[in-house]
Amino acid sequence: MTPTEAAIALQDHAALWSMGEIRASDVVNTACDALVAGLDTPGLRILAACTRAEADYDVHDLLPAALDELSLAFYPVGSEASQEAAARALARRMLAGELTPREFTFRIHQRHGHELPLTGRLAELDDEYDILEYGDRTMDQVDAEVTAEARRLVAHPTVPAESADSPR
Average pLDDT, whole number, for the chain? Predict the structure, then answer.
């Protein structure tokens, strides 16, 4: 893993953790991977040193500082920016083969419904999976459109950390 890939993975894990998608210990494991990949800051070392038992209590306090030292964003929990970051992280997971297109749309739809503008089409595609047997589209066609949407999400520009709290 390159340092850039490690930074992206850490950013993604931070977003997924803040949305309740993954455990705090997964963030600690990713911090360890980032150290091995060549990223090194005091905050990252402290985060990586957490035990599984400590992670649930300490990640909340340690993660923002570790990300800041790496010039990565930690979006406020529940903010639209954090929801969008988590959606992009899930899109990267789907494109990497860790989720099927159906699982990806289900998780997006379950988490955001039709309310998050960035993922609205994915919620619609999740609905399409539910009615495939009654329509004229195939699973492969819907999968292809989901994959295209995932690529769009990954390419979508992110909100800079300092403006994540600011009104748009």
Answer: 90
